[in-house]
Amino acid sequence: MDIPPIGESEIDGPASTVMWASTLFDYTVYSHEGEKLGDVKDFMLDVRSGKVLYALLSFGAIVGMGEKVFPVPWDALTVDTEHERIVLNIAKAGLQDAPGFHKNSSPNIADPSWVREIHVYYGVRHHNVQG
User: What is the pTM of this model?
Assistant: First the structure.
């Protein structure tokens, strides 16, 4: 079921509308060059601020990636509502070394080195939204 955006928003971020999170599960992730990369599997939220910090992406079409998911900082993504897709500014070949984890395990998301690794990899600044 396709649920449309529900209204305009003043929220800073890649999308200019407020959307149901479940709508984004139907969006495919593409590179900035138009290559299909994968799909959104889940989100990681900052529970204090309510902001999405990471989209957990599956790049299953890439050989050797298996059942891993890849946390991508929300600021590294652009939601393209017109084409119903999400754009990540990275080439498909650049995902071979992307930091990720197996779906049945979870990284220590409070570890500053893990946070730094993710943000450096995707070339976005980490914003501490807690507090």
Answer: 0.75
- The H or E element that residue 44 is part of is strand 36-45
Q: Are strands 68-73 and 52-58 parallel, antiparallel or unpaired?
A: antiparallel
All structural domains of the chain, each given as residue ranges with its CATH number in brackets, are 8-122 (2.30.30.240)
* CA count, 13 A, side-chain hemisphere, 3: 12
Sign of the dihedral defined by the CA atoms of residues 104, 108, 113, 119, in that order: positive
pLDDT tens, residue by residue, 31-40: 989 999 999 9
50-64 pLDDT per residue, tens: 889 999 998 864 545
Selection from 79, 101, 92, 88 nearest residue 23 by Cα: 79
Residue linked to tokens 């900082």: 73
* Residues 38, 57 contacting (CB under 8 angstroms): yes
